[in-house]
């Protein structure tokens, strides 16, 4: 009687394959773990390989280990403080706004422009009106040399009080040239917008206020403060207005929130 052949001696060979699979899985997870921590130097090298002209600006919305992209945010900006200090901080902001308004009034008086520059503080905002004769010639958006001297002094006041500033709006206005017919729409809006833009750009280039806090608006002839009848009724309407809004800590704006998280890589194409 012939012997039955055994089924083979490799009954446990499946464990070799299983062990190989477990080893591969372990290597895979070790690889994932190693990738979860990125070397700062390697990251900088990667970024600069795409843009050799780029310079890395380290930012941290919590202010730990990095600087803020907006110098007005963080320790220098009272909008991000311990909630227990809100009342005292808000009082400091209001006091600083009062000092800024007084400094702007004094500047206008020192320059002999008290009749052409008006300053009013109300509702946590400073309203400054500049007649067009201070800044611009007729139908022109080019800043006069004397206007630049005035704006440099305005910038100094803004820098001194920037920790209390939420945003600055520059609004351009024109007068209706005809007593009966509205101005041509495109030219009217363009002149007003260009005037506001010129003032904003000058402030951006000559102050430390973060550009995200600067806004230009052109209203043309459509928000007059006089009746546009005759030169006396037109002159007050030709103006540039600056509205400086103070920080409201209890209702901190989306702007401050966005700026605190802003991360930038400078040096590339816009």
Notes on the protein architecture:
- The structure is a single chain.
- The protein is an alpha+beta fold.
- It is elongated and about 105 Å long.
- Helices cover 42% and strands 15% of the residues.
- The chain contains 8 helices and 7 strands; from the N terminus they run ααβαββααβαβαβαβ.
- α3 runs antiparallel to α5 (145-160) and α5 (145-160) packs across α6 (185-206).
- β4 (165-173), α6 and β5 form a beta-alpha-beta unit.
- The strands form 2 sheets. It has a 5-stranded mixed β-sheet with strand order 2-3-6-4-5.
In short:
With 270 residues, this protein is α+β, with helices and mostly antiparallel strands.
């Amino acid at each position: 009687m012939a012997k039955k052949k055994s089924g083979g001696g490799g009954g446990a060979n499946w464990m070799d394959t299983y062990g190989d699979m477990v080893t591969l899985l372990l290597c895979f997870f070790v690889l994932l773990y190693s990738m979860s921590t990125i070397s700062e130097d390697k990251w900088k090298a990667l970024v600069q390989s795409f843009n050799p002209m780029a310079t890395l600006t380290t930012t941290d919305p919590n202010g730990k280990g990095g600087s803020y992209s907006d110098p007005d945010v963080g320790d220098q900006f009272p909008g991000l403080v311990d909630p227990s200090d809100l009342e005292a901080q808000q009082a400091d902001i209001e006091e600083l706004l009062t000092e800024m308004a007084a400094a702007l009034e004094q500047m206008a008086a020192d320059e002999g422009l008290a009749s052409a520059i008006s300053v009013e503080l109300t509702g946590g905002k400073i309203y400054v009106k500049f007649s067009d004769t201070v800044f611009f010639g007729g139908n022109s958006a080019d800043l006069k040399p004397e206007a630049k001297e005035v704006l440099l002094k305005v910038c100094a006041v803004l820098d001194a009080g920037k920790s209390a500033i939420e945003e600055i709006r520059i609004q351009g206005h024109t007068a209706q040239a005809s007593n009966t017919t509205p101005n041509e729409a495109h030219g009217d809006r363009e002149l007003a917008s260009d005037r506001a833009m010129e003032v904003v750009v000058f402030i951006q280039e000559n102050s430390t206020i973060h550009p995200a806090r600067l806004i230009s608006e052109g209203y043309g002839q459509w928000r007059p403060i006089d009746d546009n009848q005759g030169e006396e009724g037109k002159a007050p309407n030709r103006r540039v207005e600056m509205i400086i809004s103070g920080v409201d800590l209890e209702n901190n704006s989306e702007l401050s929130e966005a700026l605190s998280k802003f991360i930038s890589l400078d040096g590339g194409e816009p």
